[in-house]
Every structure is written in C-alpha cells, then in structure tokens.
Amino acid sequence: MSTIQIAIDGPSGAGKSTMARRIAERYGYLYIDTGALYRAIGYKILARGGNPGDPADVLPALETLSVTLRHVDGEQRVFADGEDVSDRIRTPEVSMAASAVSAIPAVRAFLLELQRELARKQNVVMDGRDIGTVVLPDAPIKIFLTADAEDRARRRYEELIARGEAVDYETVLADVRKRDYNDSHRAIAPLQQAPDARRVDTTGCTLEEGIARIGAAIEEMMADVG
C-alpha cells in the first residue's frame, strides 16, 4: 500500500473531528472531515429553501453544486459553490440537515469518489459515519469512537453555548438521540462498527484523556501494520 489511511467512525458528538485533527497533526497526515461535506450540502439545500430529506429538492442541486475542502493557513475549510461555509455549518439545524441528505444514495455517491481520491494521493486521517465500512474498507487502521448520548450531548451543548447559541441541554440531547437513530437506521451505509475496527469509548473523558485513548489504540494498530 502506497499510502496509509486511518479511518475514524462514530456517532454525532463523539469528538471525532477534534481528535482526528490532533491525530493527523501527530503523524503529519492530511485530516479530512467528511461530515463537513455532508453539512455543506445540507446547508446549501436549506439556504435554497429546500427540504434536505426530499430527493426532489436535493438531486437537482447536485447537478451544479461544488463542494471542496481546502487548507487555508494550515486549517481545513469547507467551500460550497466557492463560498467558505466552514463557520455556518456547525449549527443544530445544519447537523440535522446533514443527517437527512446523507440518507439519500445519490448524495453519498456524489461524495464517495472525492473522499477516495483524497485518500489515494496522501496519508490521511478521515472521520465520518461510514469510512471504515464503505469509503475506505481496506484502511489498515480503523477506530470506532463513541461515548454515551448524555456525554455527547453535554459536549455539544457546551460547544454551542461557547459560540453564543441560544440552546438548552434537553433539546441538544433530543437532537443527538434523533441523529443516532437516523444514522444507524438509514438504508444506505448506516452507522455501524466495522468488524475489524477498534472500539474506543470516551464516556467521562476529558479531551486530552480521549486523545490519549485513541492515540494508544492507533499506536497498537500501527505496530501491527508494520
């Protein structure tokens, strides 16, 4: 294998993006937040007044929509139709829109080759919902990162409050549980742990403790890869 792929899957709010970014920095790999791609599509559908869960609204948009990842000053930024939407796609509304569009097969096909092409060209740490099962099934290192729903909701709530969002914990918890159900019950590429993935549970962990756990698991798997 000419390149190494680290695939990190798990439910919403498990800390995949933050931890994957830190792991990528540790190894000097390219970090790819695939969830941001789905969020960008969901955001654009909402911005056009469409229903992210209705293929009749989504499919025509895919014919002209351009979604790309670029690194600006060392930071991954997400562009949709040339617009930097990185800061606009992190709201609860867009999170639910991302879950809705991800259940549409044409959307997954639209992004699949983009994700694989990035992984073919360089060593990557890629996180999402189906990286180890669908996008990069041959990745030598697979992690399924999780935590209980209450813990994930608390983290998301604190993150949104820090951004000045007017939210309450119970609403965030309900959204997390709803997204868990949607992601694990969709017909196409449902969220599930790959048979050869290492499960890492960070319930009750601080960020640094979580990174230490996932880092230790990856080190062990790296040793097996050789």
Gist of the model:
This protein has 9 helices and 8 strands. With 226 residues, it is of the alpha/beta class. β3 and β4 form a beta hairpin.
Topology:
Elements: E1 5-9, H1 16-27, E2 30-33, H2 34-47, H3 55-62, E3 67-72, E4 75-80, E5 83-84, H4 92-102, H5 105-121, E6 124-128, H6 131-135, E7 141-146, H7 149-162, H8 169-185, E8 198-201, H9 207-225
Helix pairs in contact: 2-4, 4-8, 7-8
Report the span from N to C terminus: 12 Å
Beta content comes to: 15-25%
**Shape estimate:** globular
| Biggest sheet record | 5 strands, parallel
> Based on helices, strands and strand pairing, what is the structural class?
alpha/beta
Mean pLDDT: 91
Counted by DSSP, the helix tally is 9
Order of helices and strands: EHEHHEEEHHEHEHHEH
Number of strands: 8
Share of residues in helices = 40-55%
Description of the molecule:
With 226 residues, the chain is α/β, with parallel strands linked by helices. Helices cover 52% and strands 17% of the residues. It is built from nine helices and eight strands. It has helices at 16-27, 34-47, 55-62, 92-102, 105-121, 131-135, 149-162, 169-185, 207-225; strands at residues 5-9, 30-33, 67-72, 75-80, 83-84, 124-128, 141-146, 198-201. The strands form two sheets. It has a five-stranded parallel beta sheet, with helices on both faces. Strand 3 (67-72) and strand 4 form a beta hairpin. Helix 2 packs across helix 4 and helix 4 runs parallel beside helix 8. The N and C termini lie close together (12 Å).
